[in-house]
Design a protein that fits this description.
about 375 residues; mainly alpha; 15 helices; transmembrane helix; ABC transporter-like protein; membrane
Length: about 375
């Protein structure tokens, strides 16, 4: 084998590696529940009920630019997954990782700020027309939302990062105290300006502050966050950083000997105990114990609500069907990774019971999402 043949062989391996990594990162469900809302928001700009109003013309160009930036950030985070994909496939391909490191770092830092601003831009017509607020209050509301986002990031730092040094803990607590005081003063000002919307946002922010600080106390006593720390340190966690948390290869999460906090006092889901019911119960509990699974499920549902509240009436009840189809396929993929474990290879179950358990577990999986989506569809039909 001469040098040219070796070079072509390595080049072929390199291209196959890039294609395999890209297909994993660019999951079809991620593409759909990111690209479809953007396409709907841009397509129905002029035929929606407020498309003919003059105030909408002011923000129309912002929405078009925002849609491109939204796709830009999503595309960049695929490279962030490619950067870490050597942990899954090949450990020797350092050239690809080095060349993409700078780009992926830039995209990952840009994602959070752009994501928050774009969601605000998409909802800007509703803020201006339905809530009757002026442009000054709009920008104050944007700053409040950004502050909420960064405060959440700060509390996540406290929850998930182990700070061993006392000065670091003291500095973080000082920052929390200052931000609490600032939010309290500013919240009173905003409530006095416009009581309805600002009271809602301020109470939401206050609930977030109290809830996250309670979670910090639970972290010291419970076992749930120990499992989260294990997930954060796992080699597959980097792949879940794809925008909106793309589905990743199944990884068993629970490693502590104690009963997880989320099911510490749980009862049986079915009164009749048979093989299929036990299989469904184990699948639901194992899925809910995984913090990243819950985050991924909630993000699919919540992000699908945004365009559903804005699109015309005739599509309000068709769009949730598409989201439920995505969740159906996602549940089947999670079920496949669940039943292919070593336990079911050693102790196989009859095919009829497996099919019955898969159908029932998938229905239980999409039932909460269906209730939320169609409730929002009905409410938005009458409110907007």
């Amino acid at each position: 084998m001469n040098s040219i043949t070796i070079y072509r062989y390595r080049l072929k391996q390199y291209r196959q590696f890039k294609r395999k990594v890209w297909l994993l990162a660019n999951d079809w469900s991620v593409s759909l529940y990111i690209l479809l809302p953007i396409a709907l928001l841009l397509l129905f700009n002029w035929i929606s009920w407020w498309g003919s109003k003059q105030i909408f013309l002011v923000v129309h160009q912002l929405r078009v630019i925002g849609g491109w930036l939204f796709l830009y950030c999503w595309f960049g985070n695929l490279f962030m997954a490619v950067e870490e994909a050597d942990k899954v496939f090949l450990l020797g391909m350092r050239t690809l990782i080095t060349s993409l490191r700078t780009i992926s770092l830039y995209y990952s830092l840009q994602k959070y700020a752009t994501h928050t601003v774009l969601l605000f831009v998409y909802l800007l017509p509703l803020f201006i027309q339905c809530l009757l607020i002026n442009i000054t209050q709009v920008f104050e509301l944007l700053v409040l939302v950004l502050l909420w986002k960064y405060y959440h990031a700060l509390m996540r730092y406290i929850l998930y990062i182990k700070m061993e040094h006392l000065p670091a803990k003291a500095a973080v607590y000082v920052v929390i105290f200052v931000m609490d005081f600032f939010l309290y003063i500013w919240g009173i000002k905003l409530i006095s300006m416009h009581a309805d919307i600002y009271l809602f946002f301020y109470l939401t922010l206050l609930a977030l502050v109290v809830g996250l600080q309670c979670l910090y106390i639970l972290r010291l006593k419970g076992t749930f966050f120990k499992d989260v720390d294990y997930q954060l340190n796992h080699k597959y966690f980097s792949l879940s950083l794809v925008f909106l948390f793309a589905p990743v290869p199944h990884v068993p999460l629970i490693r502590s000997q104690k009963t997880p906090w989320i099911f510490k006092r749980s009862t049986r889901l079915f009164s009749v105990r048979n093989a299929s019911h036990v299989l469904i119960e184990c699948f639901i509990k194992s899925y809910c114990r995984n913090f990243m699974n819950l985050s991924r499920y909630l993000q699919i549902v919540v992000y699908s609500l945004i365009p559903n509240a804005i699109v015309p009436v005739w599509i309000k009840f068709l769009y949730p069907l598409f989201i439920l189809f995505i969740l159906w396929e996602y549940a089947k993929s999670e079920w496949s990774s669940y039943i292919y474990s070593s336990f079911f290879k050693i102790h196989p179950l009859p095919k009829e019971q497996m099919k019955k358990a898969r159908k029932l577990s998938t229905l239980l999986f999409i039932l909460p999402a269906g209730i939320i989506l169609y409730t929002v569809s009905v409410l938005s039909t009458f409110l907007f």
